[in-house]
Amino acid sequence: MASNHGWGNAAQAFGNRNYRTYQLGRFVSQIMVWQYRVAIGWLVWELTHSATWLGIFGFLDQSLALFIMPIAGALADRTDSLKYLRVTQALLLIQAVVLSLLDAFDVLNLWILVAFTLSNGAINSAQQPASQAILPNLLRKEELATGYGLNSMTFNVSRFIGPMIAGIVIVNWGTAPAIFCNAIGAATFSFCLFSMRNNFTFPARPRNRSAHMAGDLRGGLKYAVRHKGIGPTMAILSALAIMPFTIDPLLPSLADGVFHAGATGLSWMTSTMGVGALVQGSLIVRRGGIAGLSAYVNRAILCLGIAFLVLSLSGYLWLALVCIFVIGFSSSATRVASMTLLQFSVDVDMRGRVASFYGVINQAGPALASLAVGALCDRFGIPLIMGIVGACTLGVWSWAVARHRAIATALEVEPLAHRSVEK
């Protein structure tokens, strides 16, 4: 399939009103969400000074994805994704307002934070499959790689801006304003979703669809496992999810416990990781197309493993920030390119379920692993564990390279199911 190159790809995608409105609301919301995440992470660190507790909160935020996302994926394949997103975003808005009120009355403590972290994780888990599956309905097939690249860019611009603002706000005024902004972001995204025109066509579902949710889930799982490209890609992502993708919840401990840089160091690290992912997203947008994305993923995994090894040996904050930049770039490249390949090659009736399996791996996997990694970091120190993660990541890279040809053949060719459905 022929593809354009350069920023004209982005202009073409943003020419679609629904996609433009969706990304605007999502962008504002994500800036506020990152302020909220930094504030919550810093509150937990101040209350406990424990990497184990940071790992627990990382687990709580993502753990329910294991149970909720597969069901949410099946629902996304049965329903109008836009209406579904309107409901889940309204729930996030209600939660954000309630948490803001509790913070305003100064009644937040560790256990209230536990409850809201679980609630936030549950709603986000229910929302994610539809948020991924809706993009093929907002864009043409040839714009799909650009669309997911722009998703990554807007997410990571917010990942840079949000923590940077949060660091300034927390140092000068405390965590309360950063938490309150989450309600503003949720309201903005809700408004954008309700202002989108619901005049695009969703793919027709086959008439022999199972009448039961359990049948849909079994069918989706069998399809993903047996697919010659999707199955191995899910295996690679699963291995990465229990190793390098666990670093995010440990950044407060790395910033303050290893480099003694406090909240300012945490904001630097979080923003630097976001900048790395942002640069990667811009490359995906400019390159356009699908060809070569499997090799792109393999190169990203190699860089990811090397960065963790260097980070484990670094005694300097500036070198650690360089490594974190590479980790942000490489982990984002792996995720964005993989999701693009999966959504390009998947049958249209399986989009929501495959997106949900991807979400389970990339959310529940790191959540479960963060418990063990946090405890191991407290026991043996962060540098040693980062070194072990780097070595294991290089092992995943060697496995992926050995299977590259088969994966590329299965994922980089447009399936007949796509050509049979008109946008």
Could you describe the 3D structure shown?
The chain is an all-alpha fold. Helix content is 80%, strand content 0%. It has helices at residues 8-14, 17-48, 51-62, 65-78, 81-104, 110-133, 135-138, 144-173, 176-195, 213-226, 230-241, 251-258, 262-287, 293-313, 317-345, 351-380, 382-402, 404-411, 416-419. The protein starts with 7 loop residues before the first helix and ends with a helix. Residues 416-423 have low confidence and may be disordered.
Helix and strand topology:
Elements: H1 8-14, H2 17-48, H3 51-62, H4 65-78, H5 81-104, H6 110-133, H7 135-138, H8 144-173, H9 176-195, H10 213-226, H11 230-241, H12 251-258, H13 262-287, H14 293-313, H15 317-345, H16 351-380, H17 382-402, H18 404-411, H19 416-419
